[in-house]
Amino acid sequence: MAEDSASDKARLGLKQTVVGKAKEVAGALTGNDSLTTEGRLEQEEARQARKADTLSHMAEAESEEAVEQLDAVREAGQQEREAVQRRTEAAESQAEREARVRKQAAELEYQENVVREQSDAARQATAAEKQARREENAQVTDAAAEVAAADENHRRVFHDAERARLEAEEERRKAESLDRR
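Given the sequence above, the corresponding structure tokens read:
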């Protein structure tokens, strides 16, 4: 299912990039700056989505690896403690056994701290990815607002030009009618 989701995301990203490029080219060919800008924004949005997805996968993999390492360290520590206990009970005095167990516990604690720090780093990466997505969403929202404003301005200018053309045509008709008199 995760593979389907990843493939769907890849297809969607490719589609968004292609559609964005097509809009950019169409806008450039027709002289429609707002369409060109919209195409570029869609391409950037697709790039940002790919980047965020990559960061998410990396953070998830690091987190899973940290958990696996922690489990392996705990298991290895448990096995080592059991082996040490068996060896020391047969050969060493109580004081020597306690010293070795304390040393192993300290080493295990150190290893657990290292794994914990790696896990914390993975969580921080996930938080950074979420922040990047929030920033990306804010940029997309800002860009969409700019596109909408540019589109509204384009419509207003077109409407004003059409009104001026109609007024000029009416004036020309009046002038022709006066010339005929």
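The two ends are 82 Å apart (CA to CA). Try to locate this feature in the token string yourself.
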